[in-house]
Write a structure and sequence with these properties.
With about 425 residues, this protein is an alpha+beta fold. The protein has a domain of about 280 residues: 2-Layer Sandwich (Antithrombin, Chain I, domain 2), CATH 3.30.497.10. The chain is about 25% helix and about 30% strand. The protein is built from 10 helices and 15 strands. Strands 2-1-3-13-12-11 form a 6-stranded mixed β-sheet, sandwiched between helices. It has a 4-stranded antiparallel β-sheet with strand order 8-7-6-9. Helix 2 packs across helix 5 and helix 4 crosses helix 10.
Length: about 425
């Protein structure tokens, strides 16, 4: 059966470059201008403080994680559009990392790109990054929220809870996962944290789960230079299989944008607000999935380094709205943290004695791009459950047999319906010959 077409270059590359350095996707489709009245905001040309060495390492290494995540997800997903948030996935897994130990900790740390950093350094870097990103541009609304939901009766380590609340500013709630109200509360949290753009992250909640860790990000702001809606017009968009579809294309001419090109690709950067945040669009000469397959931080750095201000004859980009929902277990396992999903997982820093594994990592994303800007939201949910049980629990009526294994002779057979009854007395009936 032929593979479905992968139509939209922009759809597939809108969020792969979400958190790489400080060039982030985001913004809004309902603002009237960068500051609400159409005036251009003051440009932001420097960070408010210098990054620590650990923060710099986390940002650089997270770039590799984000690029590998989108490349593997795009190659494995038959849907035409794949939209992911590396930041949201990294932060949710970063919280979970605080419960890991031994080889599980090493595997997760390596997959996230944090080799060589201690847990304290990783946590401090996440905390610093949250503080830095949220308040970076007054003309862009960017929020990060973290939450931990524990099933009633689950005895998790207080030290784990302390690290997650202190470093990730996470809220902690203990609820009965068997109650429908708990599922409503979890979905309600996601709805609030994304301003209603992701109203539901779970359709059901397994009562056997022990914990759910969640990260939500929301970004809302306008283009620094908006597109004129009067210039938007239908145009053919060529899918990967050569077929075309009509889409509304936003157009700009005789304006200045950062443009660049490299080996088989062209790129443009579209700033938001004061320019600290921007969308980078990379259009390849060939297949986009093949282009990003082997990309790493150096390739992304080459894209950014190629960008120079140029006046364009024409810049044409489609309007689009995409919702994406994906379970990331297979991708993350292929990236090196498969042990975290197995019965051999070691989460003894989360609960004394461990016996836990990651049941699922699920991410839902939303993105809308129009003439005024972009709205983007993501929620990553990590479910923690007991390790897969191998064995048998005879806690209901059962049959048994004692046999001689070589000959197959049955010596005793029985059905046990109540192990507490030692002698039930004789059954009904009477003896005697008739």
């Amino acid at each position: 059966m032929p593979r479905p077409a992968r139509p939209s270059i922009l759809h597939r590359l809108a969020l792969p470059l979400l958190v790489v350095g400080l060039t982030l996707l985001g913004a809004c489709s309902d603002t009237t201008g960068p500051d609400g009245n159409g005036d251009r905001p003051d440009p932001i040309t420097a960070l408010p403080r210098q990054l620590t060495a650990a923060e710099q390492t986390v940002i650089e290494q997270s770039t590799g994680f984000g690029l590998e995540l989108i490349a593997r997800a795009a190659a494995a997903d038959d849907r035409p559009n794949v939209v992911l948030s590396p930041l949201s996935a990294s932060m949710a897994l970063g919280m979970t990392l605080n419960g890991a130990a031994g080889g599980t900790f090493d595997a997760m740390r390596s997959t996230l790109g944090f080799d060589g950093l201690t847990q304290d350094e990783i946590n401090a870097s996440y905390a610093g990054l949250i503080d830095l990103l949220v308040d970076l541009d007054p003309d862009v609304e960017f929020s990060i929220a973290n939450a931990l939901w524990a099933n009633a009766g689950f005895d998790f380590r207080q030290s784990f809870a302390d690290r997650v609340t202190q470093s990730f500013d996470a809220t902690i709630e203990t609820r009965d996962f068997a109650l429908p109200a708990t599922l409503d509360a979890i979905n309600g949290w996601a709805d609030d944290a994304t301003n209603g753009f992701i109203p539901e992250v779970l359709t059901e909640l397994d009562p056997n789960l022990l914990m759910v860790l969640m990260n939500a990000i929301y970004f809302d702001g306008a283009w620094t230079e908006s597109f004129d809606p009067a210039e938007t017009a239908p145009r053919d968009f060529r899918r990967a299989d050569g077929t075309t579809v009509r889409v509304d294309m936003m157009n700009a001419s005789e304006q200045t944008f950062p443009l660049g090109h490299g080996n088989g690709w062209g790129a443009v950067e579209l700033p938001y607000g004061g320019g600290a945040y921007a969308m980078v669009v990379v259009v390849p000469a060939g297949d986009v999935v093949e282009m990003i397959e082997d990309w790493g931080p150096a390739d992304w750095a080459a894209v950014r380094a190629s960008l120079t201000e140029q006046e364009v004859d024409l810049l044409s980009i489609p309007k689009f709205t995409i919702e994406h929902d994906a379970f990331l277990n297979p991708v993350l396992a292929d990236m090196g943290m498969g042990v975290a999903f197995s019965s051999g997982a070691d989460f003894s820093e989360l609960r004394e004695g461990g016996g836990l594994c990651i049941d699922f990592v699920r991410q839902k994303t939303f993105i809308e791009v129009d003439e005024l800007g972009t709205t983007a939201a993501a929620v990553t949910t990590v479910g923690i459950g007991p390790t897969s049980f191998i064995g048998l629990v005879a806690d209901q009526p059962f049959f048994f047999a004692i046999h001689e294994r070589l000959s197959g002779t049955l010596l005793f057979t029985g059905v046990v319906g109540d192990p507490t009854v030692r002698d039930g007395g004789p059954g009904e009936g009477e003896g005697g010959c008739h």
